[in-house]
Amino acid sequence: MYKRLKVAILVLIFIVIIIPILLLKFSSDDEISKDNNKKISSVDKNDIAENKDIHDAKEIEKPNNDVQEKPDIKGNSSMSNQVINVETIDDYKVIVNKKHPLDRNYRPGENPVAKKALLKLIGDMQRLGYPISNSYSGFRTYQRQSELYNRYVREDGKAKADTYSARPGYSEHQTGLTFDIKDRRGRLLGNHGINNSAANWLAQNAHRYGFVVRYQRSKEHITGYKAEPWHIRFIGNDAVKVYERGQCLEEFYGVEGGDYIK
Ligand SMILES: [Zn+2]
User: Fold this and answer.
1) How far is the CA of 38 from the centre of ligand 1 (A)?
2) Picking from 74-83, 203-212, 249-258, which range would have the lowest pLDDT averaged per residue?
3) Which fold has domain 77-253?
4) Of these residues, 59, 87, 155, 228, which one is catalytic?
5) At what angle do helices 196-205 and 112-127 cross, to 10 degrees?
C-alpha cells in the first residue's frame, strides 16, 4: 500500500513538475531558435543594405557606371532612325568611337553650352598671346562626314583614311560637343609640331573649361585614333577628373574602344 502511494506521488510529481519544466524548456529552445533566425535574417538585411550603400557610393565615385547603365547613350548603333538629343543626356557623356557610332539622323547641331565654353577658352588663349583663330571646326552632320571620308578614301585609300578620318557616323564632331582648334593661318593646332607651345597649354588647361584633348599619343590603341592635339571634346565637370587621372574617355567611362569591328 505504502509502495503504491510512493509511486503515485512520484507520478504526480512527474506530471506537475517535470512535464511543465520540459515543456518550458522546449518552448524556450524554440524561442531561441526563432531568435537566431531573426538575427540571421537581420544580418542578411544589413549585408544587403551595406552592399547597396557600397554600390551607391561606387556609382557616385565612378561616373562610368552611369554610362554603362545607359546603353542607349553609347550603344547608338542599335538606335537606327532614332534621334538622340545630347542636351537631355546628363553631363554630356555621349561616347562616340570606332565601336559606338551615331545614327545618320542624329543631328543636334552645335551645343550652346559647349560653344560658350569654347569661346571663353579661345579668348583666354588669345589674351595669353597664342595665335589662335576665332574660326574652328565644330559640328558636322553625318552627310558632311560622309563627303569628307569618301574624299580621303579616294585620295589615300581606305586603310590610310581610317587612321585619320572617321567613317560617317563615327565622328565625334557629329555630337556637337567637339571642336578643332586652329591657328590664325587656319592650321590645326599642334599638327606636325605647329604651335607646340599653344598645343601644350591646351593639353594642360582644356579641362578647366570642361574639355578634354580627346586623342592622345599614349591612348591611340584605346581611342582608335592617332594623337590630335587640336581636337577637344566638351564633357563638362568630369573633365577635371579625367585630366587628373590621365585617362581617355573610354577608360574613364568604362566604354569599349579600339578599332572598327571588321
Ligand atoms: Zn576633330
Assistant:
1) 61
2) 74-83
3) Muramoyl-pentapeptide Carboxypeptidase; domain 2 (3.30.1380)
4) 228
5) 130
